[in-house]
Amino acid sequence: MPVTSILKVVGKLSLMAIVASAVLAGAPARAEDKTVPASRAEVALSFAPVARAASPSVVNVYSTKTIKVATSPLMDDPFFRQFFGDSFPGLGQERERHQQSLGSGVIVDPSGLIVTNNHVISNGGDVKVALADKREFECDVVIKDEQLDLAVLRIRNTREALPALPIADSDRVEVGDLVLAIGNPFGVGQTVTQGIVSALARSQVGVSDYQFFIQTDAAINPGNSGGALVDMHGALVGINTAIFSRGGGSNGIGFAIPSNMVRVFVDSARKGGSTVQLPWIGAELQPVTADLAESLGLDRPSGVLVTSILKGGPAESAGLDVGDLVIAVDGAEVSDPRVFNYRLATKGVGNLAKLTVNRAGKQVEVAVKLIPPPETTPRKEIVVNARSPLAGARLANISPAVAAEIGLAYRGQTGVVLVEVPEGSVAARLGLQKGDILLSINGVDVGTTAEAADVLGSNPAFWRLVVDRNGRTLRMAFR
After folding, report:
1. pLDDT at position 13
2. pLDDT, tens digit, for every residue of 391-411?
3. Quick one: pLDDT at residue 459?
4. Measured in whole angstroms, how far is the alpha carbon of residue 197 from the centre of its chain?
5. Which segments within 22-161 are labelled E, that is strand?
6. Residue 452 has pLDDT above 80, yes or no
7. H/E element holding 65?
8. Are 42 and 19 in contact (CB under 8 A)?
9. Is the pTM of this model over 0.70?
10. Catalytic residues, which ones?
């Protein structure tokens, strides 16, 4: 909560003393208690007590991976390797190269649980953390999620309680609240910057289906990723994740994942989960534009419109209908499908979400049970090794569970989907992408991975693929 939230008890005390007392007390203030500073003395403040309390919980995260690369660029071409192998003198030689990523993290449990961004540790190498007191520890990755861009690490062999940052309720954060960003920008060492909350519920920042970012003008730079955004009580309100920048540096527009989403992620790690189960209700939603709002007779764009409902899903069981306008989840307004998904995610699997729905001009309440996306069809994954345009890709039978894992909107599709297309693979070089659904190969319809494997093993001289990509049908031909 901001320092001004406790100004009503100020006499002639300096605001620096108030900050210190707020950190010690830790009691949140109500929005109606906040007042404007009444004197110059009240704005002559220091954030040192907050920084002193929070900084020991913020760590530097180092991820290192050793890879082997060919001495000749020709050896990176899969077709060249397939036809010529390592028979050419000198071309088969490889050298080692170290890939390193640098970021920040936050200790959220005295036992050594650390939360950071997935992109900080995504190269899959060895992970180490350096504490503020210069001690270094090796870590294991407990859980990570590419869509949420979060990861939880656990320090190995720690024999003492570590300084953990309390997790605040990010729904109580307001525009204008004072915040500190703590991290390791550019690898220079731990740095504290100050600003305010500039905006809430930013949902158009990237590609995640669960976006609900806190925007701040506190300086965030490369290396700050995974660091802490803290309030004036020294509690975590967000994990610094991204910046809007044309030159790579801070332009005063930074984004943090709210602490309520972080709490869901950390709770999954504490329970021993290897993945985060995110709720699924079996309904497709779309945002309400100005034109759509006018056609619906609304005075302003608001809510999300239900455009389809899967048979047998929680939405159908709860009585949700196509054409319903969902305007709130548990009393919190929703203005975008990403915001809707965020509200369900922070509610958690196994609970009931109370949806406020505008149905034909009447407001009704619909209680939807939140379940994990089901694997309605066994995935039966295969990796394509045969010489074909799909070489290197990993395929699976599509289901709500598989679609959720790769961030694909599930509309009842059936068939085979590309769940992984490694960089540098033949499939990637030829333009195939994760999430592409195979409809046919050389004129043969493929409904399962087994059928796809049969066709891919035929080794023809000419290949024709029909692919569904985000609802568009693409026809590809390769020789």
Report:
1. 30
2. 999 999 999 999 988 888 888
3. 78
4. 20
5. 58-70, 94-109, 113-116, 126-130, 136-145, 150-155
6. yes
7. strand 58-70
8. no
9. yes
10. 119, 149, 225
